[in-house]
Specification:
InterPro entries: KDZ. It comes from Suillus luteus UH-Slu-Lm8-n1. This is Unplaced genomic scaffold CY34scaffold_864, whole genome shotgun sequence. Keywords: Membrane, Transmembrane, Transmembrane helix. Helix content is 53%, strand content 5%. It is mostly helical. The chain has three domains: 179 residues, no CATH class; 222 residues, no CATH class; 77 residues. Helix 9 packs antiparallel against helix 17 and helix 15 packs across helix 17. It is globular and about 95 Å long. The N terminus and C terminus are likely disordered.
C-alpha cells in the first residue's frame, strides 16, 4: 500500500513551502495487511506528494515482488491510477513494473473511501473485490504515529544520519510487528471471528437466495464474475437507475485549514450527525444481557465517535468562532466533560444556530446544497426499502411454511424495516435543517418537493387499505423520481443490489479464513527458519565468559519454541528479559 503523511499533499504541491529544504516529507510503501515497511519502500518528497515521487518509490518496492497479482491501495488511487503506465514510460527501464504479465488492482482504504464519491465507493472498494478478504488497507496509517515523533530530530540531521535513523526506526517497527504475530493471541482470535462471520453471512446469503428465482441468480452471478474478471464491464454494485446529482458549484478556495475546506467541514459535520443517530439507535437496542464482545464493540464506537467529534469541533472554531460562545452558554458546557455523551454533543452546524446569531452565508450555502441532495437520497432510500420489503412479504406469504422458515424470513424483513425506519428519520432530520436554512437564506419553493413525511406516507405504491378512498403516497409522485422503468424492474434492481452485497460479504469472510490459514502456516515456517538462522550464529563466535555462554544458550529458544518443545502446559512462555548483566 502507498501511504503518505499528508492526504492533501497533491492539492498543496504548488503552495507548500520548500525553500531551503532537501525534503518536505516522506512517502512509504507498506504491506497493507501486516503494516510492515517494504525494502526500498521509503523515499523523500521534495515538494509535496507529487506523482513522480510516489511512482518512483512504488516501482522501487515492487522490484522484489515476483507475483502474478498485486493489490495497490492508495487514498487517492481513483485519480492516481489514471495514465499510470503512460507516466511509467519516463521511468528507468529497470524500475518498470511487470504490469503486462501481472494483474494489478487498485483500491482506496476503507476509512478514506467514505470521503469519496459514490463511483469511487463501488469501483475501488475492498468490500466488493475478490481475493482481499477483510483487508481494510488502513494499516500503514497507523505507523505514522510511531515515526512522527522522530521528525523533530531528523529534520536537523544531514542526509546520511537522517536516512540511517529512519532505517533504524523502520527496522525496529518491522521487528515489533514480527514479534506481535502471536498465533494464539492475534491470528487465532482473528480466525475465530472470521469463521463465525463466514457462517453467518453464508447462511444469510442462502436465505436471501431462497426468495429469488434461480434464473435471476445465475444471471446476476455471471454479471458479477464478468466484472471481477474485467473491471471495464458494467459494475453490478451500481444501481441501474438515475441518481440525483450532488455536485456543488465550484468556487474560490477560502479554506482556513490546510486539510479541511468549508464544504469539507459541513460534509464531515453531517456525517458525524448521522453517526450520532446510528449510535443512539444502537444504544437503544442494547439488552441487559449483552456479551462482552458486544459491550466492547459499543465502547469502541463511542470512543471512535468522541475522537472524531473532538477533532472536528477544534477545526469548526476556525470557521465558526461563534460556536465557542454557544458551547459555553449551553447546558453542555456546565457538565463535566466526562459526563457529556458523544451522541448528545451539539455540533452547531449553520442550520442549528439560534435566530439572531451571526451566520456565514458561504457555510450556510454549502450546507443547503448538501442537505437538499441528502434529502433526495434519503427519499430514494425510503422508496428502495419499501420495494424490497414488499418483495420479501410477497415471497414469504407464497413460499415460506413452518415456524423455522417464518422466523428466518421475519429476521430478514425486520432488517429491511430497520433500515427503512432509519432512512425516514434521516429525511425528517434533513428537512428540519432545510427549514431552518431556508428562512435564513430566503429559499423558496423547495417545500413543494420536500414535503413533511408522515408515518401514513411511508407505504408501498400498491398499499391502499381502503381501495375506494385510498390514494397513492406523495413519495411515489415525486417528479424527480426515475419513472422510466416499471415498478417490477425497480424491485428487481433493489433485490439485485442486496444479493450482490450479500454475496460479496460472504465471499470476503470466506477469503479471510483462507488468508489466515496461510498466514499461520507462514508464521510457523518463518519462526523455524529464524531459529535455524540463530543456531548458525553460535559457531561464528567464541566466547569464554559464563554470562556470554549462557546468552548463547538462549539462541536455541526460537527453534525450540517454534517446534513446540518449550511450551508448558499453561501455554505461556517465560522468556528472559532483554536486560543484560553488567559484564556483558
Amino acid at each position: 500500500m502507498v501511504s503518505n503523511k499528508s492526504h492533501n499533499a497533491v492539492n498543496l504541491v504548488d503552495t507548500k513551502s520548500s525553500r531551503g529544504l532537501a525534503a518536505t516529507g516522506v512517502g512509504t510503501i507498506d504491506c497493507a495487511r501486516h503494516d510492515m515497511k517494504l525494502p526500498n519502500g521509503v523515499g523523500d518528497l521534495q515538494k509535496g506528494e507529487r506523482y513522480i515521487n510516489m511512482n518512483y518509490i512504488m516501482c522501487s518496492a515492487l522490484l522484489i515482488l515476483a507475483m502474478s497479482m498485486i493489490n495497490i491501495s492508495y487514498d487517492i488511487a481513483c485519480q492516481w491510477h489514471k495514465r499510470l503506465w503512460t507516466r511509467m514510460e519516463t521511468m528507468p527501464e529497470r524500475l518498470s513494473p511487470p504490469h503486462e504479465s501481472s494483474l494489478i488492482c487498485f483500491f482506496v482504504p476503507k476509512f478514506h473511501i467514505q470521503a469519496h464519491v459514490d463511483k469511487c465507493r463501488t469501483n475501488f472498494s475492498f468490500n466488493w473485490s475478490r481475493y482481499v478478504g477483510r483487508t481494510d488497507g488502513e494499516a500503514p496509517e497507523w505507523g505514522w504515529s510511531n515515526i512522527n515523533r522522530v521528525a523533530s530530530s531528523t529534520k536537523e540531521m544531514g542526509p546520511g544520519a537522517r536516512q540511517d535513523t529512519l532505517d533504524d526506526h523502520f527496522g525496529d517497527w518491522n521487528w515489533k510487528k514480527i514479534t506481535a504475530l502471536d498465533l494464539w493471541r492475534t491470528l487465532h482470535k482473528k480466525m475465530i471471528e472470521a469463521v463465525k462471520w463466514t457462517k453467518e453471512h453464508s447462511e444469510a446469503l442462502s436465505e436471501l437466495e431462497k426468495t429469488i428465482q434461480p434464473a435471476l441468480i445465475a444471471q446476476w452471478k455471471a454479471e458479477v464474475e464478468s466484472w471481477e474478471e474485467d473491471n471495464s464491464s458494467p459494475n453490478p454494485f451500481e444501481s441501474r437507475f438515475n441518481r440525483i446529482p450532488q455536485d456543488l458549484q465550484a468556487g474560490i478556495n477560502v479554506s482556513l485549514h490546510t486539510d479541511v475546506s468549508p464544504s469539507g467541514l459541513i460534509t464531515s459535520g453531517m456525517d458525524l450527525k448521522d453517526q450520532q443517530a446510528r449510535l443512539r439507535s444502537s444504544l437503544a437496542n442494547v439488552s441487559l444481557h449483552n456479551t462482552d464482545n458486544q459491550k466492547a464493540t459499543t465502547q469502541t464506537q463511542i470512543a471512535s465517535l468522541q475522537r472524531r467529534l473532538d477533532a472536528w469541533a477544534h477545526i469548526q472554531e476556525l470557521y465558526m468562532p461563534v460556536v465557542c460562545q454557544l458551547r459555553h452558554r449551553s447546558s453542555e458546557a456546565s457538565r463535566r466533560p466526562q459526563e457529556l455523551k458523544p451522541e448528545e454533543f451539539n455540533l452547531w452546524l449553520p442550520s442549528q444556530l439560534p435566530a439572531g446569531t451571526p451566520l456565514d452565508l458561504t457555510l450556510a450555502g454549502h450546507e443547503w446544497e448538501l442537505r437538499y441532495a441528502q434529502a433526495l437520497d434519503a427519499l430514494n432510500e425510503v422508496r428502495s426499502h419499501l420495494r424490497l420489503r414488499s418483495h420479501m412479504y410477497k415471497y414469504k406469504d407464497k413460499n415460506v411454511r413452518g415456524q423455522v422458515g417464518s422466523t428466518r424470513a421475519k429476521k430478514i424483513i425486520d432488517a429491511v424495516e430497520s433500515r427503512k425506519h432509519a432512512s425516514v428519520l434521516k429525511y425528517r432530520r434533513v428537512c428540519s435543517a432545510l427549514l431552518s436554512l431556508g428562512h435564513r437564506l430566503e429559499k423558496c419553493g423547495w417545500e413543494l418537493t420536500m414535503r413533511p413525511l408522515l408515518d401514513s406516507d411511508v407505504k408501498p405504491m400498491g398499499d391502499m387499505e381502503q381501495q375506494g378512498r385510498g390514494t397513492i403516497s406523495w413519495i411515489w409522485l415525486d417528479s424527480r423520481a426515475d419513472n422510466s422503468c416499471t415498478e417490477n424492474e425497480r424491485i428487481q434492481d433493489c433485490v439485485r443490489l442486496e444479493w450482490c452485497k450479500a454475496r460479496a460479504r460472504a465471499h470476503r469472510w470466506s477469503e479471510e479464513v483462507e488468508l489466515l490459514l496461510e498466514e499461520m502456516r507462514r508464521v510457523l515456517a518463518f519462526l523455524r527458519w529464524q531459529g535455524s538462522w540463530w543456531k548458525e550464529r553460535i559457531t561464528l563466535r567464541t566466547l569464554n565468559s559464563a554470562p556470554a555462554q549462557e546468552g548463547l544458550l538462549w539462541s536455541d529458544v526460537p527453534t525450540l519454541v517454534s517446534g513446540g518443545l518449550l511450551i508448558p502446559e499453561s501455554g505461556e512462555i517465560d522468556m528472559p528479559t532483554i536486560d543484560a548483566p553488567p559484564q556483558l
